[in-house]
Amino acid sequence: MRAFMPIAAPDLTPTASGERMAHVGELRLCYETFGDPAAPPLLLVMGLSAQMILWDEDFCELLAAQGVWVIRFDNRDVGRSTIVREAPVPKRWQLLTRDPRGAAYSLDDMAADVVGLLDHLEIGAAHVVGVSMGGMIAQLVAMNHPDRTLSLVSIMSTTGNRRVGYPSPRMALRLLRTVPRDRAGYIADHIETYRAIGSKGFNFEEEHKRERAGRCFDRGIHPAGSARQLAAVVTAPDRTPRLAQITVPTTVIHGDGDPLIHVSGGRATAEAIPGAKLLILPGMGHDLPRELWPQIIDAIVQNASLAAA
């Protein structure tokens, strides 16, 4: 594996490929790459109802500058990827009771989507990094497809054990809210959400978040798709026993101020995976504040370098 460079300065020459489409079975997944395609591939997996552009372009460029080919994508049922419109929408009571009949697909299916994207890109194995629901998916890629996984980083995620990684009651109810369908209302809701779940004591970057929310709206919002993703999360079985099967280098990152997935979820994930490193970031909530990017990128890079040792 190519040697990693020191953390680069933020004034990087853009290397983004622009949005492209991959055919993965019956789905089309929208993706974008950053950096040199000849470098080791590193795949970023976003969370619940979150489009790939929540992996900020500057973050992706900084990561690519470390000697990896960065890939971000929209999961099924979000953004510009296939919206599974023919699938039923789970009812609120099914989400609250975790009724498996409300799930149109599973997190395992979404992990298979990741592997399908790797197939499309003709990538044998990749470093896999996921946040929140994306961390759950990344864990399943490492468990279900160990030959396709070089290393794993699970950020602000959990094991599926309901006794850990739980949301605060207020945040649990927020997941079930009705999202505004107009652009201004959607942007306002996006800002309100990040004020509720985000890191305290860091620069909120409201204008940046407003611009990003507008881009999300313009790319397409799909509340029914978000509900189907949530059903996949709440009906997923506890992964704790199977996490012990993961043998690739693993780092677990979590904030001690996360109101959506309690830090106990990160601790339990690290405890379940043999040899996993745990990085608890003081003050970090359920987001990726710019001030913490150097620590997060360094942790990802150092973890990936272990796969080449």
Task: Please explain how this structure is put together.
This protein has 309 residues and is an alpha/beta fold. The protein has one domain: Alpha/Beta hydrolase fold, catalytic domain (Rossmann fold), CATH 3.40.50. Helices cover 38% and strands 15% of the residues. The chain has helices spanning 57-64, 92-97, 107-120, 133-144, 169-174, 183-197, 206-219, 223-234, 240-243, 263-272, 293-307, and strands at residues 20-24, 27-34, 41-45, 69-73, 126-131, 149-155, 250-255, 277-281. Strands 1-2-4-3-5-6-7-8 form an eight-stranded mixed β-sheet, sandwiched between helices. Helix 3 (107-120) crosses helix 4 (133-144). The protein is globular, with a radius of gyration of 18 Å. The termini are close together. Mean pLDDT is 94; it is low at 1-9.
Compact overview of the structure:
This protein is α/β, with parallel strands linked by helices.
Class computed from helices, strands and strand pairing: alpha/beta
Number of domains: 1
CATH class: Alpha Beta
Tell me what portion of residues adopts beta-strand conformation: 15-25%
- The geometry reads as globular
Give me the CATH superfamily.
Answer: Alpha/Beta hydrolase fold, catalytic domain
Termini distance? 9 Å
Strand count, sense and closure of the main sheet? 8 strands, mixed
How much is the radius of gyration in Å?
18 Å
Q: Give the CATH architecture.
A: 3-Layer(aba) Sandwich
Assign a percent range to the helix content: 25-40%
- Total E-strand runs: 8
Mean pLDDT rating: 94
CATH topology: Rossmann fold
> Which consecutive residue ranges, at least 5 long each, have pLDDT under 50?
1-9
Listing every helix as H and every strand as E from the N terminus to the C terminus, the arrangement reads EEEHEHHEHEHHHHHEHEH
Number of H/I helices:
11
Going across the biggest sheet, name each strand in turn: 1-2-4-3-5-6-7-8
